[in-house]
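Invent a record, attention on tokens:
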Amino acid sequence: MRRRTAMALMPMVLSPWMAGATTVERKRLERGPVTIELLAEGQGPCIVLLPSLGRGQEDFDDIAPRLATAGFRVLRPEPRGIGGASPLASGATLHDMAADVAAAIEAEKAAPALVAGHAAGNWVARVLAHDRPELVRGVALLAAVTGTEIDPEIRRSITASFTLSLPEEERLSHLRRAYFAPGNDARVWLPGWHPQVSMAQRAAAAATTDKAWLRAADRHPLLYVAAAEDAIAAPPSLEELRASLGPQVTRVVVERAGHALVPEQPEAVAAALIAFARGLP
């Protein structure tokens, strides 16, 4: 049995601000020697949002208030190494990252939650569903890679997106190629990259050698939100998803979106999450 570490909630709540019609609280939690930074807003059943590789919770700034005003409690734990969150320690795995999310859900007394992971964030969502199934009522994967090969040129553009020393226009061309559907504004992703965080997250994924967590939908209902023009993870069929993820999969395809998805079509992503959450037992 995995050892659970005691966690304490610091009494300090850092300056709330308004996002749409909801007030966002920024909190800090202590889990042993680890500090977890958490954004929270809204009231109702809980939805937890996990961002993509090397990116922070600001990616959900347009989605979170939509969920909150629809009647949900939205929790956004900041990835380790971003903001006030402690960096990932050497040797950490996806199980350690999932334990941070579990601590946030428990501190807020928000279980069971719908846990949604964007792109690489889907790894943590699925590991949490495997390790702590009692905390999870459903899992949502947003533009998640499910095992397909990535074109070498696209992979090169992914790496270039984290290379902040490149000229802005060169980085912009890589962002357009790898992440955004034609016609969508890739400039919104010029900032917000954390190269050291992405390296630590990749190392944690590589150090996670067990594979039982890959089939999260064996235990929980699972929503796969595909981006119609995703150059990294082309939309799989429902049959392919059920073969790789388990039988309880629902599929939604968002048009005019690439792998970035969340900043491209926030209204459609929020609508898919709301509809799925309202249908969960």
Q: What stands out?
A: Strands lie at 7-19, 22-31, 34-41, 46-50, 73-77, 113-118, 136-142, 222-227, 249-254. The helical segments are 64-69, 94-107, 121-131, 152-161, 168-178, 195-207, 238-245, 266-278. The mean pLDDT is 91.
